[in-house]
Amino acid sequence: MMVKWEGVMPAVTTKFTSDDKLDLVMFEKNIKAQMEAGVNGIILGGTLGEASTLTKEEKEILIKVTLTITKGKIPVIINIAEQSTKDAIEVAKHAESIGAEGIMILPPMRYKATDFETVTYFGEIAKNTSLPIMIYNNPIDYKIEVTLDMFEELSQYKNIVAIKESTREITNVIRLKNRFGDRYKVFTGVDTLGLESLVIGADGWVAGLVCAYPAETVAIYKLVKAGKINEAMKIYRWFMPLLELDISPQLVQNIKLAEVATGIGTENVRAPRLPLQGTERERVLNVIQAAMKTRPSLPDYKNL
To answer: Do the domain assignments include residue 253?
Structure first.
């Protein structure tokens, strides 16, 4: 299916059993909850998906299972975060061959590429797949910034169509829109800037806490796009302490604890990650428990 680059797209977590195998039962439960809430796509294999710890076989299983669950109703997008151009092209080709409908690409891993090398890396992948591509721009965590001038160079590749904007410089949304108009669809990738980014023109939201709270996330998006900012703000203000759990090195553990609270996930992570311990665990649980006690009733956002 053709990807419509808008709306909420969860970067889903990978579910594990207590003996470190894929928990496909809980994974399916979560994906169905996302779909019921009205998300616009599923992104597999990102940071939240613990992709760096997954085998090729596990990644393939997750793609195929997700395609079976979604049944063509929403697109399935695969994140690419590889160390070499050759490997990235291989992943892109394989994802396309087994039915993925889009890819999201990080700059080269481990090596801090120059601007020229980064543009060349993205371009080589684009030339070797027909899938639409979202560029993930996150210099805070991955140390390489894709600048406006670099996006100008990348505009020659027609299948590079979207940007996950995670610089945490919110005005970049406006800069991208001013420079490129509708050439690129722009998604906010920072949960704590979600509403603000949508208000100033972002087309969508690649979200993290959506993994535990899909309806609340989609409701904010729908309300903003319907011009109901005050209604969206009421949900967003409630949501903010939870959203702050996304901007942490332990975001995977944090969000998985939130998934436990809402009944659509488990706490199991894959080593070297370990479940939160001690005072930090208590702090995160207190944030989640406080939010659960005041969880808001949502308007009929699906019919806006």
So the answer is: yes
Does residue 303 fall inside a structural domain? no
Residue 114 DSSP class: -
Consult the annotation and say whether 91 binds a ligand.
Answer: no
Q: What is the DSSP string of 214-252?
A: HHHHHHHHHHHHTT-HHHHHHHHHHHHHHHGGGSSTTHH
Residues with a catalytic annotation lie at: 136, 164
Consecutive H or E run containing 8: strand 7-10
**In a 10 Å sphere around its CB, with 0-12 CB exposed, 13-18 middle and 19+ buried, how is residue 281 labelled?**
middle
Number of domains within the chain = 1
Beta bridge partners of 160: 133
* Distance between CA atoms of residues 247 and 190, nearest Å: 8
The token pair at 263 is 């009944």
Q: Which CATH number characterizes residue 130's domain?
A: 3.20.20.70
Mean pLDDT of successive 10-residue segments in the chain (304 residues)?
Answer: 93 98 98 98 95 93 97 96 94 95 93 95 98 96 95 98 96 97 97 98 98 98 98 98 96 98 98 97 98 98 95
Using the structure block, give the residue that is written with the tokens 């590079």. Answer: 160
- Model pTM above 0.70: yes
Which residue range(s) make up the domain with 131?
7-298
